[in-house]
Design brief:
Aminopeptidase; 8 helices; alpha/beta; 2 domains; 266 residues
Length: 266
């Protein structure tokens, strides 16, 4: 079912070329005109960068996202949260023709959901990414400079996961240019790096789809499953010992079998 949904959407994404650009001049212009203060979260994105992002160019989108601080305040006291970046991504999606809803799931923590209704009863595809990042302590480059150097984009979130958000936004901009048989949902969430408040809110609100693509960094490998966890409290009877010396204790195989059996309890 999932593969079928992917094929239906992939065949209908128009291959619209992006405007030509001088990447080197972008980097020079952006670094000269940008103002980034990690202590306050203040930033200024130049007009050219903003206009390039509106074209749907993935590089321009990634640069604009990086230039908008969204450090998770639960991880760093000076973190600004997702308010500014939520506003920016909502503006882009509205400009591309998507209907957009924003919701504050906690103080200063925002989700953005864009929808593009299809013309038929086709499947619903969800594109998902998170807007928050980890902190910037210890970085040796401007975390919000979005510098292009040697074919790479430098800045906080370039990998996890503003690059992925740029990719899915670029796909949404292309899909919006032509009619589609199904519905597209773009869900950008808050607080993935700490407690997943944003995704919990969407699940609680009943958000659903026939298939979903989460654009976390995977070195471009398709990951059809995701790890999870379960809390288990178990009591074992026997002689206590330390795990640093397993070879000394004859009961180790019994404990190994017991722990292995827990894998199937769920």
């Amino acid at each position: 079912m999932v593969n079928s949904v992917y094929r239906q959407w992939w065949l209908r994404i128009p291959t619209v070329p992006f405007p030509s650009r001088d990447i080197g001049s972008w980097a020079h212009h952006g670094m000269e005109s940008g103002c980034h203060r990690r202590t306050t979260g203040c930033h200024r994105m130049d007009d050219r960068m903003s206009q390039e992002a509106l074209t749907g160019d993935p590089v321009a989108l990634a640069r604009a996202l990086i230039a908008t601080p969204s450090v998770n305040p639960e991880l760093e006291a000076t973190g600004t949260g997702e308010a500014a970046i939520a506003e920016r991504t909502a503006e882009w999606m509205r400009a591309w023709g998507l209907s957009v809803e924003t919701s504050e799931v906690a103080a200063g923590r925002w989700n953005v959901v864009g929808r593009l209704a299809g013309e038929g009863a086709g499947p619903t595809l969800l594109l998902n990414g998170h807007l928050d990042t980890v902190g910037v302590a210890g970085m040796t480059v401007d975390p919000f400079g979005a510098e292009l150097r040697d074919g790479r984009l430098w800045g906080r979130g370039s990998c996890d996961m503003k690059g992925g958000v740029a990719a899915l936004l670029s796909a949404a901009a292309r899909i919006a240019q032509k009619p589609t048989p199904g519905t597209l949902i773009v869900a950008l969430t808050a607080d993935e790096e700490y407690a997943s408040l944003g995704m919990q809110a969407l699940v609680g609100a009943g958000l659903g789809a026939d298939a979903a693509v989460v654009c976390e960094p995977t070195s471009l490998a398709v990951m059809p499953a995701h790890k999870g966890f379960v809390w288990v409290e178990a009591d074992f009877r026997g002689r206590a010992a330390h795990g640093s010396r397993p070879a000394k204790w004859a009961w180790t195989p019994s404990v190994t079998r017991a722990v292995t059996s827990l894998r199937w309890m769920h």
